[in-house]
Amino acid sequence: MLTRRHAISLGLSAGGLGAVGAAGGLFQTLVAGGTAQAAQTGATPVAPFTVPFVTPPVLRPVLRTRDTDYYDVRMALTSHEVLPGTRTDLMTYNGSFPGPTLRTRRGRTTVVRQVNALDMPTSVHLHGGNNPVAMDGGMMDTIAPGRSRTYVYANDQPAATLWTHDHAHHMESEHVYRGLSAAYLLADDTEDALGLPSGKYDVPVVLRDAHFDENAALLYTMDDAFNRTTILVNGKPWPVMKVEGRKYRLRLINSCNLRIFVLRLGDASPMTHIGGDGGLLPAPAKMPVAVLSPGERADIVLDFSQYAPGTQLVLENLIGPGPTELVGKVMRFDVGEKTPDNSRVPDVLNPRAPLPTPTVERSFTLKMDADAATGAGALINGKVFDPARIDTEITWGSTEVWTVSNTSTEIPHNFHVHLAPFRVLERDGQPVAPTEGGLKDTVLLWPGQSAKLQLTFDSHRGVYPYHCHMIDHSAMGMMGQMKIS
Length: 485
Ligand code: C2O
Ligand code: CU
Ligand code: CU
Description:
Shape: globular
Bound molecules: CU-O-CU linkage, copper (II) ion
CATH class of the largest domain: Mainly Beta
Strand order of the largest sheet: 13-12-11-15-20-17-18
């Protein structure tokens, strides 16, 4: 069993954190976490920056009507060349790793028929989606092997980077790890009018880690944060992306089970954050880092016209666990000639609506005991998940403030709420960074931290979960249910 301390150990010296000072106290816990390092037990038969970056295919509708797009997706075991010259068996959506990107826009309805050709039950959840319970891909609402299920998404919400992934209870962590994960990009007219980089300059970047054995098989062990030291971007290890000297919009999605990324460009120049989980930020925010815990998204614009053609720019990751030579690098941008660019990032993106007045306050504590892996100790408010139990009764239409605390002393957690996006009012009493200033659905909690979230429950009614999105933890039971009625 892992020493918990390792889950937050740094992969680099504390001094390397100087450049991220803007994020304030966020990193102090990490520094205190020490520099213990994991032994790499798996195979990494590939050197970083030797494999080309790829963009996942875009899912094509089988039928389009005036207001609806119909898609067919098959979940099946397929084999892929992930590490050069080898094959890896993966659980895929339509044979693609990660799954194909679904691109749609507000006002159009998406109908996805999911066929389960795997030998395990699955459940398809649209993370960040505003959908009725029957379409939410609940933990217990699974598709049996050989059966199919049709999900309908009204897309009645602002433009955002959403994420499709498996949610079959106790199995979601392994299924996502083995490949059931895909970007879902929702556009709208408001976003189009801004003139942001678009088309081939708007690129999903699905990040994750993995543990391969000598035969390139993907090894899955529950809560094994630290042997997963091969970093994959859109399913490729440490790829190189050839970019033109112009602006790109990158939709970063942390699809890891446990790994938190603190991303920074090799030259420490600021990244322009334009969006988070729930869509565009009020205004662009320049930050030298992008901090992403599992399930979180960051929508950033990078302007490569500021680099001389020939520049090689590494996207680094400043934290462990794992050896810096492996987990300290993510991908590389190789900058080409300048090309014409009429895209822009306006000073105002998405003005914030005033917050309604909350009438209910609640608190949630997340804690992991040493025996969590046995199924007894991954707790929210002292309880392990029970699908037969409603933990939180909510009155439809109400606005609430939730104080969510990570009472573990060494393990980070995060907190994801289905259906209702939230604003993060503060973390440990401090205002959050502007990169967290938009709507969110997942919030990071370092050991000992707490955050105040404000949520309004004015869309669908019914029973939805909230959980730690370090999904090895939710698979162990760090999950609760709210009933909105
Ligand atoms: Cu990303 Cu309960 O989901
Ligand atoms: Cu979700
Ligand atoms: Cu957790």
